[in-house]
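In this supplementary section we document a worked example of the pipeline. Step one takes a protein sequence of length 153 as its only input; no multiple sequence alignment statistics are reported here. Step two produces a three-dimensional model, which step three serialises into structure tokens for compact storage. The input and output of this example are shown verbatim.
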Amino acid sequence: MSWILEEKIEDAYAAYLRANLPGSMRVYVGWTDEEIQYPCAVCHAGSSDNLDDETTFNGHRRVPVKIAVISEATPELDAGGKQVRSSRERNSDARGPVLSALAKTALHEDLNDMNIAGVKFSQAHMTAMTRSIEGRHFVSEIIVDTIANPTAA
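The serialised model returned by step three reads:
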């Protein structure tokens, strides 16, 4: 059994989103070496905790997965230079399909269906979202409360 659980969780979310988002949306895992292209979603499982500190260790981990939807803070222009969509609309158009893909009562089952070796999900549901501007990018961060455990590969 491998304990690279956070990476496996990111892999499962990325695979799920790639299968459920429009082709123009790029999906990356956290700490990627790839050059980021926009719009995109970045899946990051940065921390984990023992599920229940009252019991002995059993391998089940609570992981707040952050899905950052990032778009450039520039309007979309047509060939003649006329604005087609504002920066705000571009971000909303990128964020909407991600929210739709994650807004499920049995998201953990869909993640398990991705068949990522080494991880099994027992819970996954959206809990919070924040929006911010970082440099020349709009960032919408969606938190998905996740419970997962490592499995034999």
